[in-house]
Amino acid sequence: MPKDPLELLERVEDLPPLPAVAARVMGMAENDKTSALDLAQVLSTDQALTAKLIRLSNSAYYGFARKVSTVREAVLVLGFKQVRQVAVSSSIMNAFTGKKVEGDPFDLDLFWGHSVAVAVAAEGVAKATRTAKPEDAFTAGILHDIGRLVLRRAMPVEFRQAVEMARAKGTSLHAAEVLATGYAHDDLGRALGEQWKFPGHLVDAIQCHHNGRLTPAADGLPGIVAQCDRLAHHYGLYCGYDAAGDASPPPPADLAAIEQAAGGIDRVLDRAFSFIESASGTPEAWYSTAAS
Questions:
Q1: Within a 10 A sphere around the Cβ of 120, how many other Cβ atoms?
Q2: In whole angstroms, how far apart are CA 255 and each of 175, 233, 260, 286?
Q3: Per-residue pLDDT at 238
């Protein structure tokens, strides 16, 4: 039985708060009276985020012919919902950025690669099935493994043991981390989301993303994220590490339907790489599966 996540959160002294801009943007998204100009003014207070937003607006991820040079133009071209998901995603990615440690088996580039792949797939499934808002699906995909970064920061030695165990034995990192640390990252993600005052539907999706029995049709957003996480793992897009292996077999019928709704794994990988490249700079590592 995993330990109480609140106990760990209370003793992590350097846990970053939810970035101020991300918190304001998420709050604005719930207010129907917020205008595009209001959003642009908030985003403009963060120069680093502004630069990333403009770079992403001009990237292959969106493929617009028009050149975007200001935050206001980005909001007008991309739309309120797209800018919100970019702002929240980039802010949280920045909050947990840290120096790479030589020999660390957990690769932060691959962590975000997995998260963004799930986000892109989830956005596509939400659009195709109309069982959740696409912008919520993307955000939940980015956030679903956030508890894992808490574990890595709070218990680095034990977390490293968990990653090494998962790679050596071929077991899931989810199971290995409970054995090595006593905590489950989905529980920690839920607790952190509540601490950061995320909307309840996002918290639910974070908590339930390992429940493969959930479906988009029956469970909405949690079902979308759970199945897209499952899809990413099927194709070797593991969370924070790469693993050599043969080409993935065809997915089972239910997962094949999820892949089709997402637009196909090749499209998901192309868009995920493009987003990562623009939001955080060209990643130093990418999955062998994606490169093959």
A1: 28
A2: 22, 11, 9, 23
A3: 93
Per the structure block, which two tokens stand in for 112?
């975000």
Q: How far apart are CA 107 and CA 282, in angstroms?
A: 14
Burial of 65 per CB tally in 10 Å (0-12, 13-18, 19+): exposed
Q: What is the Cα–Cα distance from 178 to 258, expressed in whole angstroms?
A: 28
Which helix (H) or strand (E) covers residue 290, if one does? Answer: helix 288-291
Query: pTM score, two decimals?
Result: 0.91
pLDDT at residue 98, rounded to an integer: 65
Q: What's residue 142's pLDDT?
A: 93
- Both structure tokens of 59: 């990237």
Report pLDDT for 83: 80
Low-confidence residues in the chain, pLDDT < 50: none
Give residue-wise pLDDT tens across range 247-262.
788 999 999 999 999 9
Cα Rg, the chain, nearest whole Å? 18
- Residue 44 is predicted with a pLDDT of 86
Which domains are present in the chain? 17-95 (no CATH), 100-291 (1.10.3210.10)
Backbone angles phi, psi at 2, to 5 degrees: -60, 155
Report the interhelical angle of 80-95 vs 265-280 (nearest 10°): 70
> What is the spatial distance between Cα 100 and Cα 102, in angstroms, rounded to a whole number?
6
Q: How many CB atoms lie within 10 A of CB 95?
A: 15
